[in-house]
Amino acid sequence: MTDLFGSYQLGKLVLKNRAAMAPMTRARAPQNVPAPEMARYYAQRSGVGLIITEGTVVSASASGTVDCPGIWSEEQVAAWQPVTAAAHDQGAAIFTQLWHVGRVSHELVQPNGAQPVSASAKQAQGAMAYVRHPDGTHGFVPASVPHALTIDEIAGVVEDFAIAAENAIKAGFDGVEIHGANGYLVEQFINATVNDRDDIYGGSIENRIRFALEIVDACVARIGADRVGIRLTPFGRVSGMAGYEGEGETYLVLARALSSRGLAYVHLMDQNVGGTWTLPEGYLAQFRAAWNGPLILAGGLDLEKANTLLEAGLIDIAAFGVPLIGNPDLIARLRNGWPLATPDRATFYGSGYEGYTDYPTYTPVSA
Fold this sequence. Notes:
alpha/beta, eight-stranded parallel barrel, 11 helices, 30% helix, 18% strand
């Protein structure tokens, strides 16, 4: 029987179980440099077989969240090394998620107060950026109107991802996950309601997925296909994303194109929007048939649902997000049937060590 607690061969890596830590922004890296406490945070949660770190921006202009970590400088690479070492010491593999938010940003986060960038000049309605205000306080503000990337600028962003992938390996990561989900820059090119371009990056499905594939290919060329994964959110509705004709087929075409590249994995996020999950009934099986490789799923999973999907062969790894914030020993709790703690949402972003590394492990009551 295939279940969450069995080991799994992911490329050259042997994972101690089929559980992954999903990437979650925590905004605890001042000036985009990973803080020392991040090593403790990830080490505490290394009971999973695979850690995927919070979104790690590929350049200063890629950010939409103040104090999120980056990986474009030597200082950042050095600061990540204790984090990867701590995860490896606990027997977990660790990938970092390479992130460019595109239009889900604000001038207060951008270098020199510049406009954010996107596939088009369409503002992300309802999307929020996490900024530092002039008075030093932090908070969410509506995303700014973006600038549509030129062809030359697109090539520069692709290069930023490739450099970040190289830096990730220098920092000790086992690989990288390209953030193609949650309404950020890669998805802004894929989504036909955002992408109104009339050049080689707009219009047809093949053109709208071109940017994603160029990033994948650039990263593969630098670090190898077995070290590159990608996260996608078919039917995602966050950060101003809306539905469009042919949405499901768009991602199946992308899945087939990715299959020929031999990537480490594809990571799907089934988003909870308004209390409902967004993947249509049967779509996971369609995607599974189109994508020939390891498949990770995140979104609303508990032990029963994860094991059902694993046993059915619909996924290979189950990813958990919010439960791992309040339960650093989540795998032990699930294995033993111990109760789960509820994390404090007020401390999810940028609140120092409180609500970050101070959640206790479970201590069974002695008989």
